[in-house]
Amino acid sequence: MNDEQKVLIEAKTEVLKALAHPTRLYIIEELARGEQCVCKFVEAIKADFSTVSKHLAVLKNAGLVDIEKRGQLVFYQLRMQCLPAFLNCIGKEVAENSAARSRIINRQHRHNKIKEPMEA
Amino acid sequence: MNDEQKVLIEAKTEVLKALAHPTRLYIIEELARGEQCVCKFVEAIKADFSTVSKHLAVLKNAGLVDIEKRGQLVFYQLRMQCLPAFLNCIGKEVAENSAARSRIINRQHRHNKIKEPMEA
DNA sequence: TGGTTATTTGGTAAAATAGCCAAATACTAT
DNA sequence: ATAGTATTTGGCTATTTTACCAAATAACCA
Predict the structure, then answer these.
(1) Looking at residue B102, what is its pLDDT?
(2) What's the CATH number for B3-80?
(3) Residue B36, SS3 per DSSP
(4) Disulfide: which of B2, B17, B38, B115 matches A20 by Cβ 3.0-4.6 Å?
(5) Which nucleotide is nearest to A73 (CA to C1')?
(6) pLDDT in tens, B71-100
(7) What's the whole-model pTM score?
(8) Which 3 state secondary structure label does DSSP give B69?
(9) How far apart are CA B34 and CA A117, in angstroms?
(10) Cα A116 from chain centroid (whole Å)
(11) Which residue of B has its CA nearest to A21?
(12) Pick from A9, A19, A29: CB nearest B25
């Protein structure tokens, strides 16, 4: 792996790290439906508003969002347009996986009478 | 946000967390070109083989790969087929962004004679 | 001006992650 | 069996990330 490849991989990793938190993923999915002001997220997310702001800063630093201040409100917009399609795909896969897992668990139940759920 | 949505977001987050490390992203991109044995990764990645193994375990637990043991070798295969397209898209975006950043830096250089590079 | 709301930033403690070594497992071959 | 290779797992620090509080900024309004 040469230097350029390494730099590219690390840049992609930054994007993925920014996405890899439930609160930030929620924000991204909301933004996929249109721009939102910080205040909306502060209202919707059960965490300190400073925490929400820091999550938004992570998204901004990763280049995933654009920002526009209007009056005293700050609006965030999704920048990387390929994200929604990808997140949908992941969503389908994890839904299938968990369905498959359930089937396996049920099989085990039928055959072995194992009662404990799969490890979280 | 209801419970089901929350569970789904957290499941997607697990996938993204698994992807969000340069070594694991490298592994995923290699696997996108076809199955590989652990030994190949151990050889290619500059880290202890136990570290490589643990990264592979993360991918496995996230449901991103399938595993097949043949003889004393263990082969990993990519499971989530939408990944390569997505990673390509991210790659393009980060390439553009860094190009844009370079242009901005150059402008600053011309106007202000700022010499330090942008913060890593 | 002073007060109020929206948002960001600094600091810190707690939790999660990554990496290494050593040890355990699993297979193969002698 | 014994030894050798491939891989995983346990245990331990070091680093990174997260969340909260408090304080700083910024824009608005009385």
Answers:
(1) 67
(2) 1.10.10.10
(3) strand
(4) B17
(5) C6
(6) 999 999 999 888 998 899 899 888 887 766
(7) 0.86
(8) strand
(9) 34
(10) 30
(11) B13
(12) A9
Q: Which residues of A touch B85 (CB under 8 A)?
A: 86
Which residues, numbered 43 to 62 in chain B, qualify as contacts with chain A under a Cβ-Cβ cut-off of 8 Å?
Answer: 44
Nearest-angstrom CA–CA distance, B60 and A59:
27
How many whole angstroms separate alpha carbon B33 and alpha carbon B40? 13
Please indicate if any CB of chain A lies within 8 Å of the CB of B10. yes
Distance, angstroms, CA B90 to C1' C10?
32
Q: What does DSSP assign to residue B117?
A: P
| Side chain identity, residue B27 | I
ipTM value for the complex: 0.86
- Could you give the CA distance from residue A44 to residue B8 in angstroms, rounded to a whole number? 17
pLDDT by 10s per residue, chain A, length 120 = 788 899 999 999 999 999 999 999 999 999 999 999 999 999 999 999 999 999 999 999 999 999 999 999 999 999 988 899 889 989 988 888 777 676 766 665 554 443 333 332
CB B76 within 8 A of CB B31: yes
Q: Which residue blocks in chain B are alpha helix, DSSP H?
A: 3-19, 22-31, 38-44, 49-61, 83-112
Domain ranges of chain A: 3-81
B91 part of contact set with chain A, CB < 8 Å: yes
> Is the C-beta atom of B45 closer than 7 angstroms to strand D?
no
